[in-house]
Design goal:
The structure is a homotetramer of 237-residue chains. The first copy, chain A, is an alpha/beta fold and 237 residues long. Chain A has one domain: Rossmann fold. In chain A, 45% of the residues lie in helices and 17% in strands. Chain A has 8 helices and 7 strands; from the N terminus they run βαβαβαβαβααβααβ. In chain A, α1 links the parallel β1 and β2. The termini of chain A are far apart. Chains A and D meet through α4 and α6 of A and α4 and α6 of D. Chains A, B, C, D: InterPro entries: NAD(P)-bd_dom_sf, SDR_fam. Chains A, B, C, D: This is Short-chain dehydrogenase/reductase SDR.
């Protein structure tokens, strides 16, 4: 394989981010792994080969500009751009009276301002090459603002607004923009603690998520999907 | 290939229905081709081999019962059930004041009562075998009731209600139920007359629709999609 | 008061229908009370004065034509038309495998074909007089197809499609079309049996529903609402 | 009238904000008029009497805390809290490639962080008094992310997420939370320049908007509406 194209995964943790990186790597992409710290991404880059680990804080405009410069100088042309920052890993549900306004702004920034800023660097090239996909990871909180979930709903809605505006502007220019909603618990140690009796497919499997991202990138141009909701067969909705 | 499983396509015209039948046939399915008249389906069945053409009027309960009996006695076990009756082929937009109530009921029946009745015959076996997909074809009129489109919106909404109720009842029992919304004009001679300057991918291509149906049937169980909206890259929405 | 205008309530039972009739009667409307049987509506008509009880089966086109003729010959010009047929009073949730197709068609007819047919008789006059409202009663099942609720979701979605198509066609012609979604249990003896501990406002009060219908009819023309969801303060959604 | 209760209007310009303030003033409320500059609000406060003009930048947490303190020390108890910051007055549609990330964050802050922070100060008292409404003004961009409208869609979606989360948490505690979507152009000199032939009701009239806000505050507890979309009769949607 020639690795003449890059898949950027912005927000590469050990769950969905890593699975998505692995899946596009197998499809012949060089992968750029963006994360606030490079502890995990460096070892993942070594494992994959043809991969670059880049530190990037998606809530910080300057950090994003530096990451964009690195991607453009060190990686093949970008064909896929994945925004996978969820950062809900440490989230605990709670009344909106207790939300710290500054933390909320940081989280919103990482879900909308950051993806916008990075796209401003990378989209023009994709449009010029007339090919590419921008894939945003959302969650149940992208679909509804629930009691005790304001802290994730507000950033998630801001992300969806960006994705939808981008889709309507850039799909006619040949860029496939999708918003993927993971409507269920994703497989993880923490999820298994809550749901000890869950069967193997009752939690969303990162490798299955990744297969759907690759599918979206390859979806035929006459039948593009903007919003793709994914949930386990057993999930209540 | 062994053809030990059947894909039923209820509503098999020369566009999406035929493409879906061809696609599942290539995947190793026996296909049961249901249509009000068997002129087209007989010749398609001959072309495909391992196919059965069955006349069926989806607005008529008795005709459905007869078709179900034929499927169950002459075909391998049903694994995929596609409801593709649109029947909008002769539709002309117009004020709701001009709709014939009896024609409306016939159209609603073909989109909800009929699919329900056929499912009542075939779903129990699929549940018992713990495997299968039921795929409903929808359209823009499934998403919104527009001026001058009441005649298609009312049946389309009734179909979506059935699909969504079925999904919530049967997904936890292992049956993947999807509602596919074709949000754009489908390639056809008539569509080309309206849009003579459309590029090759500017109209929905039936073979691309069919690829998405096969994808849905094969979607991993931890990441099932209920509603899949498909539209050309250039479509305004 | 002069009673120079009529409010038609199609589907007048002792709950919301009667409350809506009372509220418009107080606003100075003659009320036409349509119901399959005239047992209840006759006594309500006597109570209200300036009211006409008319038998009408909304699933039967001929019965509708007769009712329309009676309204047009015996009542002042129609200014408000309320479709309040729910008929869920005897509904018991259950698997869609047990739905009788013919009963489903009857229920769909009463929720979409019937309201369409009656509107075909009465709307042209309202448009000519450039004034009027058509108000459709919906329910939770208008918003989602749930497991075991297919029998109400399918007719409810068909009703919403009619309302939305009518709104988009007739609002620009000066007719206010609204779809009111009652997203909660309505006060009734049966509801109190299920929820014996419900507070006075925890169930939807028919008089409150009626106040919202009057509000919609009086809503200023520069700020019309199509869909109005009503739910008790305590309701989970 | 006794003016024993306050209506806070956060975002009081000469259009909807002033109309809402006038309407609640007529209903017997003391009104607190929050705006970044007090040029307009001071003169409106003089006109109304029983009104307090308070400078407040809703994108600045410290400014909000100061405004909250002033409201709590100088005004009667808060019963209605209106978030009317749109700030789209200077907005020009344009590609998302040209959005300044820092301006986007400022706008998001004013639509979600700011309303959250002010609510954190004022909601606990409303909950204690078991009475009150929080009303958020939204726009077409709250419903969909359109091409060239990312700059308003992202803040608008963040506002809707806050409103919906707040509704689900606080409605059961007796606070009516609503998100009002103005789906059309609002009457203004600028709007008349775009649409010189618009009739008197073809643009949303601020006094009509205000009447709907008062209606929502008075809506009976058994039939509360969360989202209220308002559009002119002639509007395409």
């Amino acid at each position: 394989m020639s690795f003449l194209k890059t898949c950027v995964v912005a927000g590469t943790g050990p769950g969905n981010g890593a699975a998505i990186a692995r899946a596009f790597s197998k499809e012949g992409f060089h992968v750029a792994l963006l994360s606030r710290s490079n502890t995990f991404t460096s070892s993942l880059a070594s494992e994959l080969g043809n991969a670059t680990a880049i530190t990037c804080d998606l809530s910080d405009e300057i950090s994003i500009a530096q990451a964009a410069k690195k991607i453009e100088s060190e990686c093949p042309p970008v064909e896929v751009l994945v925004f996978n920052a969820g950062g809900a890993s440490t989230f605990r549900p709670g009344t909106l009276l207790d939300i710290q306004p500054s933390e909320l702004i940081k989280s919103i920034s990482a879900r909308s301002m950051g993806p916008l800023a990075l796209s401003q660097h990378l989209l023009p090239g994709m449009v010029e090459r007339k090919k590419g996909s921008v894939l945003f990871t959302g969650a149940t909180a992208s679909l509804r603002g629930s009691a005790n979930f304001a802290f994730v709903a507000i950033p998630s809605f801001s992300c969806k607004a960006l994705a939808e505006s981008m889709a309507r502007e850039f799909m006619p220019k040949g860029i496939h923009v999708s918003h993927i909603v993971l409507d269920g618990a994703v497989e993880s140690e923490r999820a298994r603690q809550w749901m000890p009796n869950a069967g193997p497919d009752d939690l969303i499997q990162p490798k299955d998520v990744a297969a759907n991202y690759v599918m979206l990138h390859n979806q035929p141009r006459s039948t593009w999907t903007f919003e793709l909701v994914l949930r386990p067969a057993v999930e209540k909705w």
